[in-house]
Structures are given as structure tokens and as C-alpha cells.
């Protein structure tokens, strides 16, 4: 298979398996954990096994979606980066070997020779340079075109790199592959976000596979983790919060107070600080901390301050709402909880974006990072992930410069 998000893959998922849910339910019966891990374990050697490149369409889809299912337990972390990186290389290599970018999630059209003026083609493809070897000529050839609007959705480079004519962007083979990789990354993150919402319904197989992925990822990114630290519980980064949470922090009118503070802010802050990647939805705070000091010193004061910024101030107007905060944190209806009380009620998970839009549309003011995000917590995890990845890249560049100097 050339693209797990292409039309053929979509047809297979729908017609052969009956949909994503059904596909995920049968994978444990057909794909062993070791077999799924083979799709990522080769990264250490840097050479993709021929057995992986030669997988049939169905087996390819099963093993790929096995990994996606495992990532539902950690949508933004080193495990996701490992799976995305290794599988992008697998599919890129298949496309290179196929000789044409076809059957993928991006609709690239072939270019007719007469479409490009002879003078332009001569300059761009250097057709008069007889000294160029055949491989270089092929590399310069404009093989594909795509509507400019579609290109702009994915292209991460300068438009000066692209030949544009009559509303179309014309691309070389390498530019086409680069565009496909951007499409793959976007589809990959969208799929992981969707599966994050149903992870409680997934068989235990996927949790065990996720644990194995973690082992491979920690080994692969060992140096980076030593430099940057892992994405486990850490002090809150308010600057990376989603817009809805920032609005709640600033205080809201009376009609929104209980939802914004008790439902959204309490759940978001507690999970973001204590357990950003919970292994399951029925996790308790006492599973994540050994005492309540972080809750009492770092989380509760922020909630109280946000409540007091409301109009009228929430906890002055409704003093009993403090008990409701502890209830939503999983300690039952109390204002003097102990760690042992954790589990007396459900530790509420942050509501999905769709529920926020339905129950408190005034809180939903999406920014550019909200695209494909289904839950405020995954927004935060993604921002943390991107920032840590950027810092790691900067540090590698600095260290490389020092060595060269």
C-alpha cells in the first residue's frame, strides 16, 4: 500500500472491515505485538526491512492501524513521533520505488508536456544542458501539478521554490513527496486524535503494544530525553493553554461560571499538571501523586483565583462550590479531603471540544493550533510536544556548530 490514508485504504477499511471500530477490534486476533513493533524497531539500523516494504495491502493496513490504536494512549509524545517518523519513511520509500505518486491522500495530477511554455521548461528543467546526467534531468522534471489553494494548505516552504501558472503549482518528484509527507503527518495526527476519544473502548492489546512502543521510543530518543526530559507530569505552562482554558482563567459571566470553572478548568488543570497522558479514564489522583501538596498549592489556588475573577465572584457567591471542585477531582463531596478519599467520585476528564461548543460556545474561540484537535488536553499536549521538539532541534544545531567550530 502506498498511503494508509489514501482512497484504497479507505475502501478497505470500510468494505473489508466495516469501519475503523471494527478494524481495531479484530486487529489483536491477526497482528501479534512483535509483528506490529517490527514497523518501528528498524529505525535503530536506519534500513527498512524488505519484508516491511513488501507487505500486502491488508497486512500493511492491519499493522499500521495496530500502532495507531496504541497511540490512543499517548497522542503526543515520543511514541507518536517514532511511529510517524518510521512509517512516513516506509511509505515514502514505496512511493519512490513505484516511480509515481499515485493512490495517495493528495490529488496530484500528471503534467502534460504542452502545459508549460517551452521557454519556462528550458529554464526550470535545464533541458539544453547536455552535460547533465539522466538522473539529474529526472530530478528537475516537473511531473505533477496541484491547485494552488491545495498546495497552500500543506506547503511549508517558500513559494519561490515552486513554479506557479494559471492557478496551479507544478512540482518535481521530490517536491511532490515533500507535499505528500506533510499530508501524511496531518492525516496521522487527525487519526490519533480521533482514536484518543475511544481509547477506553480499545482492547488491552493496545495498551500492551503502547508499552512496547514506549521501550523502543525511549531507546531511539535516549539522547534527546537526557537533554530535554520527558513529557510526564511537570509544572503547568499557561502560555500553551488552549483558548477556552485561557478564557476560563480570565473569569466569565454568571451563566458560564460553573461550567467554565468547575467542569472545564478543574479537569483540565488537574490532568495537565498531574497526569497529562492517563493510561485509562478511571485513573485516580492518588495513582499519580503521593500527597495532595501539588493539588493544594498549584492547582486549587488557580481555580479559586479564576472563580473570583468571574462576575459575580463564584466562590463568594457560592461558597459550597469548593466542595464541588473536590468532587470533580474525584474526592467526593468534601472540602477537607485526604489522599485516601481519592476515588470516592470520578476524577472528571476534560470535556471534548464538541461538548464545550454545545454547552458553553462563548468559551470556544479556536486559534490556529486548534485544527484537528478534539479535546483541550490534546491541544496542550501537542503544544508541549512541538515546543520540546523545537528545543531539541535547536540544541542539536548549537552542539553541532560547536563541534564544527
Automatic annotation (TrEMBL):
Q: Which residues form the DNA primase large subunit C-terminal domain?
A: 236-370
Name the Gene3D superfamilies for this protein.
Answer: 1.20.930.50, 3.30.200.260
GO terms for cellular component: primosome complex
Listed A to Z, the keywords are: 4Fe-4S, DNA replication, Iron, Iron-sulfur, Metal-binding, Primosome
Task: Tell me the subunit arrangement.
Answer: Heterodimer of a small subunit (PriS) and a large subunit (PriL).
Which species is the source of this protein?
Thermococcus radiotolerans
Q: Which GO terms describe its molecular function?
A: 4 iron, 4 sulfur cluster binding; DNA-directed RNA polymerase activity; metal ion binding
CDD domains xref list: PriL
What cofactor(s) does the depicted protein rely on?
[4Fe-4S] cluster
Amino-acid positions noted as binding [4Fe-4S] cluster in the UniProt annotation, renumbered to this chain: 244, 353, 364, 370
Task: Give the family, as the similarity comment puts it.
Answer: Belongs to the eukaryotic-type primase large subunit family.
Its protein name is DNA primase large subunit PriL
The free-text function statement in the UniProt record for this protein reads: Regulatory subunit of DNA primase, an RNA polymerase that catalyzes the synthesis of short RNA molecules used as primers for DNA polymerase during DNA replication. Stabilizes and modulates the activity of the small subunit, increasing the rate of DNA synthesis, and conferring RNA synthesis capability. The DNA polymerase activity may enable DNA primase to also catalyze primer extension after primer synthesis. May also play a role in DNA repair.
SUPFAM superfamilies linked to this entry: PriB N-terminal domain-like
Q: How is the cofactor bound?
A: Binds 1 [4Fe-4S] cluster.
The Gene Ontology biological process terms listed for this entry are:
DNA replication, synthesis of primer
Which Pfam family is one of this chain's hits?
Answer: DNA_primase_lrg
Amino acid at each position: 500500500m502506498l498511503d494508509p490514508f489514501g482512497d484504497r485504504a479507505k475502501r478497505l477499511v470500510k468494505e473489508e472491515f466495516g469501519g475503523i471500530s471494527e478494524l481495531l477490534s479484530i486487529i489483536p486476533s491477526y497482528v501479534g505485538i512483535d509483528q506490529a513493533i517490527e514497523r518501528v524497531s528498524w529505525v535503530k539500523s536506519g534500513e527498512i526491512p524488505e519484508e516491511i516494504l513488501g507487505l500486502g495491502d491488508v497486512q500493511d493496513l492491519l499493522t499500521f492501524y495496530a500502532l495507531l490504536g496504541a497511540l490512543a494512549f499517548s497522542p503526543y509524545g515520543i511514541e507518536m513521533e517514532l511511529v510517524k517518523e518510521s512509517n512516513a519513511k516506509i511509505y515514502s520509500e514505496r512511493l519512490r520505488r513505484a516511480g509515481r505518486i499515485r493512490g495517495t491522500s493528495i490529488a496530484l495530477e500528471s503534467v502534460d508536456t504542452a502545459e508549460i511554455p517551452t521557454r519556462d521548461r528550458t529554464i526550470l528543467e535545464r533541458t539544453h544542458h547536455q552535460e547533465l546526467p539522466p538522473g539529474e534531468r529526472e530530478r528537475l522534471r516537473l511531473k505533477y501539478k496541484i491547485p494552488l489553494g491545495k498546495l497552500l494548505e500543506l506547503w511549508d516552504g517558500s513559494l519561490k521554490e515552486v513554479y506557479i501558472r494559471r492557478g496551479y503549482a507544478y512540482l518535481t518528484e521530490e517536491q511532490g513527496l515533500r507535499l505528500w509527507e506533510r499530508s501524511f503527518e496531518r492525516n496521522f495526527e487527525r487519526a490519533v486524535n480521533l482514536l484518543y476519544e475511544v481509547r477506553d473502548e480499545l482492547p488491552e492489546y493496545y495498551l500492551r503494544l503502547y508499552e512496547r512502543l514506549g521501550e523502543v521510543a525511549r531507546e531511539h530518543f535516549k539522547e534527546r530525553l537526557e537533554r530535554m526530559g520527558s513529557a510526564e507530569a511537570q509544572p503547568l505552562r499557561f502560555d500553551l493553554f488552549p483558548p477556552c482554558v485561557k478564557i476560563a482563567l480570565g473569569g466569565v459571566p454568571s451563566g458560564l461560571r460553573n461550567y467554565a470553572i468547575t467542569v472545564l478548568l478543574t479537569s483540565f488543570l488537574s490532568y495537565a499538571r498531574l497526569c497529562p497522558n492517563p493510561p485509562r479514564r478511571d485513573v485516580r489522583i492518588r495513582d499519580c501523586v503521593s500527597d495532595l501538596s501539588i493539588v493544594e498549592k498549584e492547582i486549587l489556588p488557580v481555580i479559586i483565583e479564576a472563580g473570583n475573577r468571574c462576575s459575580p465572584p463564584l466562590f463568594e457567591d457560592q461558597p459550597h462550590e469548593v466542595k464541588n471542585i473536590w468532587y470533580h477531582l474525584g474526592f467526593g463531596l468534601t472540602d477537607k479531603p485526604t489522599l485516601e478519599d481519592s476515588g470516592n467520585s470520578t476524577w472528571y476528564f476534560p470535556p471534548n471540544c464538541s461538548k464545550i461548543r454545545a454547552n458553553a460556545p462563548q468559551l470556544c474561540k479556536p486559534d490556529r493550533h486548534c485544527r484537528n484537535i478534539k479535546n483541550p488536553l490534546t491541544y496542550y499536549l501537542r503544544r508541549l510536544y512541538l515546543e520540546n521538539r523545537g528545543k531539541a532541534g535547536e540544541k542539536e544545531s548549537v552542539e553541532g556548530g560547536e563541534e564544527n567550530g
